[in-house]
């Protein structure tokens, strides 16, 4: 399968897909007529899932794609997951709360069913994070930094072997539980590991070994910018 790891797929005006860094053209290289399976982050928020997935569906149409099929994995459809995957040429892993989505993916055995899939996966935000073998669940909500029960490292889908942190511009100055999320939490957690922090509009395609747009490598307690808007770099060439 081919996997596009993104931070946000929508244009700044939220009306269509973000064409920055050639994102729309890149999707067209893989698929034009879409049979999509949309997998949400939380099975317990069907109205929110319907709203966001419908918004994304319209965005694909406005960006020149023919949407032939658009299935949303609501809870009552989970028994048909294997069949739904077999009918799809595009799987979207939605954004949301990383641990909530991670638990849902385990509950529906998505890792087992997706491993032989041959189409395109577009992962958004939390979906990108949960695509990794080892997921870094960067704290997001009040209480998660200090809680002894919050686990920052989780087992993911394993469809990529890199860890992505989305929305870098938004989170780099955030504070949670009176801790700076980057300096006090993520940088210490990066010792012995490597995270790829991407801004909205940037994306990574590991099968191409390429980073597109603004991206920073967080490694061993340090942050370094490795790619900028309008450019691509080799994923394996950055340290």
Automatic annotation (TrEMBL):
SUPFAM superfamilies: Class I glutamine amidotransferase-like. The keyword Protease applies. It comes from the Bacteria. Keywords: Hydrolase, Protease, Serine protease. GO terms for biological process: proteolysis. GO terms for molecular function: serine-type peptidase activity. Belongs to the peptidase S51 family. This is Peptidase S51. It comes from Finegoldia magna (strain ATCC 29328 / DSM 20472 / WAL 2508) (Peptostreptococcus magnus).
């Amino acid at each position: 399968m081919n996997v596009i790891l993104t931070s946000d797929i929508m244009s700044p005006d939220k009306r269509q897909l973000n064409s920055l860094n050639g994102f729309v053209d890149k999707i067209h290289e893989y698929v034009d007529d879409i049979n999509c399976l949309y997998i949400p982050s939380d099975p317990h928020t069907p109205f929110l899932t319907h709203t966001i997935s419908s918004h994304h569906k319209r965005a694909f149409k406005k960006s020149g794609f023919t949407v032939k099929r658009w299935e949303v994995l609501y809870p009552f459809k989970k028994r048909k997951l294997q069949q739904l995957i077999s009918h799809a040429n595009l799987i979207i892993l939605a954004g949301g709360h990383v641990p909530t989505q991670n638990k849902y993916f385990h509950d529906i055995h998505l890792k087992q069913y997706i491993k032989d899939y041959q189409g395109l996966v577009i992962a958004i935000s939390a979906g990108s994070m949960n695509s990794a073998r080892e997921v870094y669940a960067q704290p997001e909500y009040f209480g998660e930094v200090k809680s002894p029960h919050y686990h920052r490292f989780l087992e993911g889908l394993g469809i990529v072997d890199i860890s992505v942190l989305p929305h870098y511009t938004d989170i780099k100055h955030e504070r949670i539980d009176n801790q700076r999320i980057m300096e006090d939490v993520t940088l210490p957690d990066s010792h012995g590991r490597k995270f790829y922090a991407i801004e909205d509009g940037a994306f990574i395609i590991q099968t191409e070994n390429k980073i597109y747009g603004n991206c920073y490598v967080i490694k061993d307690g340090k942050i370094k910018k490795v790619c900028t808007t309008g450019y691509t770099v080799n994923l394996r060439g950055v340290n």
